[in-house]
Every structure is written in C-alpha cells, then in structure tokens.
Amino acid sequence: MKNNTLHNLNLVPFVSVDDMMKIVLEIGVENVLTGIAEYLDADFRRWESFDKTPRVASHSEAGVIELMPTSDGDVYGFKYVNGHPDNMKTGRQTVTAFGVLSEVETGYPVLLTEMTILTALRTAATSAMVAKYLAPKGARSMALIGNGAQSEFQALAFKSILGITDLRLYDIDPASTKKFMHNMADQGFAITACTTEQQAVEGADIITTATADKQYATILTDNMIGAGVHINAIGGDCPGKTELHRDILLRSDIFVEYTPQTRIEGEIQQMDADHPVTELWQVMTGQAPGRTDDRQITLFDGVGFAIEDFSALRYLRDQLERTGHFEDLDMIADPDDPRDLYGMVMRAKANQQE
User: Fold this and answer.
1) Which PANTHER family does this chain map to (predicted)?
2) Catalytic residue, candidates 171, 237, 301, 309
C-alpha cells in the first residue's frame, strides 16, 4: 500500500494509469461499471443542483482538446480530454484524459487522476444506465458498430447492468473485431462477427455506434433501423461528426444529456435548432416519458457531459481508502505563514546550502 494520507490537505492523492488498472482489477471491471452507474444515477437525479456549461473546446485540423468543468456547490471537478483520430496511425491513443476534484470551500484539489481508462468506464456505464430507462424490456442482443477502445467496456456494461448476452459486431477494420473477440472470449457472450453494418443490426434489440472518424458519416441508414430498437449513438462528440442518417432521427424519440452541448456536437446538429429532444434527467425523475411502447425507436444522442466525469471522479475518490492504490503529490505550497511564500522559497535555498 502506498502512502495513505487522504486527509492531509497539502498532499493531493494522485491515481496513475498503473494505479487505475490495479483499482479496476482489484474491484473487478463489471463491479466498477455498476458502481459508476450508481453514482451517475444519483447525480442525474440531482441534475438541477449542478453548474452546467458546454465543454470548452479548442479545435484544430488534427483534432480537438477540451475542458469539461462542473460543480455541485460543494465539490468542483473538471476533465481535460482530447480527440485525435490520426493518433492511432502512430501508435497513440485517439483519446487521452486526466481529471481533478477540488473542494469548493477552500479551492484545494483533493484528487488528481488519469482519466483515459476512467473515461472509457464512465462512457460505458452512462450508456448502460441510460438504456435501463429507454431500451426495450427483456433486451438481450446488441449490435456494436465500431470495435475500438470503447467497445469491450460497452459490452461489459450492458451485460452487467442490462443482461445483454448476444453481441453482433462490425468494424471497418476486421483487426478491431478480432481484437474484441479475443478480449471477450471468456466473458459469457455469444458473439457474431458481421461483414456489414446491415448484417450487424439484424435482430438486435440495442444498436451501439462508437466510431472514431471526425467527419460527417452515415454509419447507419434509415432502412437498417426497425421498429422498437434502442440506439446508443455515442460516436458523435464534436461539431462536424455524426454517424446516423438524418431520416433515422426523424423517426426516433431523441434523448440527450445537456441540450445546448448536444446541439453543437451530437447527431442533432443535423436537425433544426428547435427539433424536440428530452433531457435524460427528466426521464429519470419522472418529469418526462421515456420508452412508451414496443414499436418506439429511442435514440440516446450521447456526447459525454461533465457531470458524468464528476460522477466517475466521485466514485474513484471513494475507492482510494479501501484499495490504497494512489500516491500523494506535494502540490500545495504550505508556508508557515500563508503570506510568506517568498520566505518559504528562501528557506528552502538555505536548507540546500547546508
């Protein structure tokens, strides 16, 4: 166990990639996913208590770098995240992230952590939590269009939270599908590798799209979508990137996280600015209907929102004492006199000379 001083305000617990993997493996991937989903559910139900703003994005030809902040009045959190599709060509991740939690009362950070792995976990947990409210009852099969870094987490989240056992896979790169099948071979799924998107969606109760290209795309066309399915569209996450043909949206009841952000980044950027959508927290608190009949097409236009990262960060912080997988960083200056920062520096110089 590493130094375990969670209550020393001058030392900030830091969770490295290695620590994160140890935490996930110690608790269990599916247990982490269900745990994060519980925190998400609780935070969505108190949605109105949070500060909310669309993420602050810096776009370039290569990709995007974003900051995602929020606060519930007691705790402040933010995530730094990028999206660079061409990184894969040089062996880098297309998405990387880190996050911070801080006390609102003092402004002191109380957690610094990697969030590349944690983002994959929270995205999958969010998808499955949403599907609890929108997917057809008794759903057991899911098409996974896009078998990259997010796909295994999505599959395990839907298995642990909804009981999905049958998977139909498609990716433009067969190596990604092969990778997925290897990773999930002993996880209790019946897996079918498909050669087209059309084949993948046939008979599926839920359709998840999670592709990486930052462009307008038509991964699914209207003729592929039958009545009664739930679409988990999580690949679109920035201006100029979509996965679904506009006609699918016209046939669907659309559910979003935070409407102002989704209109900029989601599938609904294709639609008129007043196209009707429902925010998920309204469904979860009984203020709006979710799935109302067996033939309804429900569409989660998921772009990822800061409150979801906040939930994941809260969950992680609550696991540190029990797992001990973190280290303390000396990040906060602590002079004997809070007004004498310069004196602290000079005393350090004198100590070095001794």
Assistant:
1) KETIMINE REDUCTASE MU-CRYSTALLIN (PTHR13812)
2) 237
